[in-house]
Design a protein that fits this description.
The chain is 78% helix and 0% strand. The radius of gyration is 26 Å and the shape is elongated. It contains 7 helices and no strands. With 150 residues, the chain is an all-alpha fold.
Length: 150
Amino acid sequence: MDQIKIGKFIASCRKERGMTQANLAEKLRISDRAISKWETGKSMPDSGIMLELCDLLKINVNELLSGERIMTEAYDKRAEENLLAMKQEVEEKNRQILRMEYWLSYPALIAGLAMVLVAAFIEMPVWLQILLTGFRTRDYLYGRLDRCGD
């Protein structure tokens, strides 16, 4: 989705309706800065506000996401393209989150192994050895159980 194209489309539809950014923002109960960000392509309207925005601008969601008016013949094709684009964006964000999880889990794994080694090979009271080993086992088990639920 081309945010700049969508932003220009929002601006033109708003102007067609004779509204200022402040008028539109007031009707949507948001700030006029948010409208400005949409119209400059810096951000997109939240999904929870899209239907109300479309209603005020007298457009449909597919037209909003396409950044242009859609003729009836091309409506189904554009709807499918928009859904695929949104799906790809969600999948990319999920991949980024998964990569971040992996990078965060490696230091935790190394620290846990270090705790087990310290507990196993350094002379210390038995209760401290049990405590250190227990923390590592608990983290390992709960970390694995949390991922199994996904």
